[in-house]
Design a protein that fits this description.
Rossmann fold, Glucose Oxidase, domain 1, six-stranded mixed beta sheet, 8 helices, LdcA_N, Peptidase_S66C, serine protease
Length: about 300
C-alpha cells in the first residue's frame, strides 16, 4: 500500500514552490490572500518569485525549494504556484528517500504531473492531481474546493469521484477493474518517455487529459504512448477533458479516442472533469481505485491521507 501523507487542517502551514514556469508576483500575492482567508499559514520557497525565462530558476534551486518543504516539520502541504513547463529537469536533484521518510501532501496538475507520478513511483507517496496556487481564488467553483478538501482533509473511504451535475461520466468500453491510478497531463507524460522518470502503467489505471493542443498533436502523443507500450498492460483508461483543443482535419478529440483507444478493449471512461477544465476533480495518484465502466462509477477505495 502506498504511503498516505498526513491530512491538512485549518491552521496548518502550506509551503509554496515554483517547480516549473514562473508566475507573476501580483498573482502569487493575490492567491496567497485566499489561502490566508481560508485559515492557513503560508511559507515561501526561496525561489517562488524567481523569473529566469522558461523556468523560474535553475534546476538545483527549484529542487532545493521542494526538498526544503519536505524537511520542514511545520509544512503539511507543498503547493506549486503553477505548472507550465520544465518540472522534469529538477527531478534528478530530489532525494526520494528523504521524501519517503517525510510524507507531505503534494498537489497540482499540468506539468506538475511529472512530479506527482515520480513521487509515487520513487517514494511510494500518494499525491494529488488537483489544485495549484493559481486556483485558490474567491470565485473558484465550490466543486473544486469540495473535491480538493475531501481528498486532502478527510479520511472518507470509499468515496466516489463524481462530475458536477449536468456533466455525465461516459463509459465507452464496459468492464470493472481495480488498481492504483496514475497519469495526468498527456504532454507531460509523453515528455518522460525514454527518461529515468518514464511513467509506469503496468497494472495501473491510466488517466489522461490535455489542453490547448490541436488534435494532430493529440494523435501524435497517443500514438507515441501506444507504440511505447503504455496501454499494453494498463488495467483501464480514463480520459479527462481536452480543453480548448482545436479540431484538425475534421478529426475531434472524441474521434481519436474512438479510433485509437476503444479498439484496445480496456475498460474506458471519458469526460471526467479535471485539471485544465473549469471543474477539477481531485485524482489521488497512487491510490487504489475501482473503475466500473458498466455503471459509470469511479471510486477511491482507501483513505488518501492519514491522521
Amino acid at each position: 500500500m502506498a504511503i498516505r501523507p498526513p491530512l491538512l487542517q485549518r491552521g496548518d502551514t502550506i509551503g509554496l514552490v515554483t517547480p516549473g514556469s514562473p508566475l507573476e508576483a501580483d498573482i502569487i500575492n493575490a492567491r496567497v490572500q485566499t489561502l490566508l482567508a481560508l485559515g492557513f499559514n503560508v511559507v515561501f520557497g526561496r525561489y517562488v518569485y524567481s523569473f529566469e525565462g522558461i523556468v523560474a530558476a535553475p534546476d538545483e534551486q527549484r529542487a532545493e525549494d521542494v526538498m526544503m518543504m519536505f524537511t520542514d516539520p511545520n509544512v503539511k502541504m507543498i503547493l506549486p504556484t503553477r505548472g507550465g513547463t520544465g518540472v522534469q529537469t529538477m527531478l534528478p536533484y530530489l532525494d526520494y528517500e528523504v521524501i519517503r521518510d517525510n510524507p507531505k501532501i503534494v498537489t497540482g496538475y499540468s506539468d506538475i504531473t511529472v512530479l506527482l507520478n515520480t513521487l509515487y513511483q520513487r517514494s511510494d507517496l500518494i499525491t494529488f492531481h488537483s489544485l495549484m496556487l493559481i486556483d485558490f481564488r474567491p470565485d473558484t467553483p465550490a466543486y473544486n474546493f469540495d473535491q480538493f478538501f475531501t481528498a486532502t482533509s478527510t479520511l472518507t473511504a470509499p468515496r466516489m469521484i463524481l462530475n458536477p451535475p449536468g456533466i455525465p461520466l461516459i463509459s465507452l468500453v464496459p468492464g470493472n477493474v481495480t488498481g492504483p491510478i496514475v497519469g495526468g497531463n498527456l504532454t507531460s507524460i509523453v515528455n518522460t518517455l525514454g527518461t529515468p522518470f518514464e511513467i509506469d502503467t503496468d497494472g495501473k489505471i491510466l488517466f489522461l487529459e490535455e489542453t490547448h493542443a490541436p488534435t494532430t498533436l493529440i494523435y501524435r502523443y497517443l500514438i507515441q504512448l501506444l507504440m511505447a507500450g503504455k496501454f499494453d498492460n494498463c488495467l483501464g483508461i480514463i480520459m479527462g477533458e481536452c480543453t480548448n483543443c482545436p479540431v484538425s482535419y475534421g478529426t475531434t478529440y472524441q474521434d481519436l479516442i474512438n479510433a485509437l483507444l476503444v479498439p484496445l478493449g480496456k475498460p474506458l471512461m471519458v469526460n471526467l472533469a479535471t485539471a485544465h477544465g473549469f471543474y477539477k476533480a481531485a485524482i489521488p495518484i497512487g491510490a487504489t481505485v475501482n473503475l466500473d465502466t458498466v455503471n459509470n462509477m469511479l471510486t477511491v477505495l482507501e483513505p488518501t491521507v492519514s491522521v
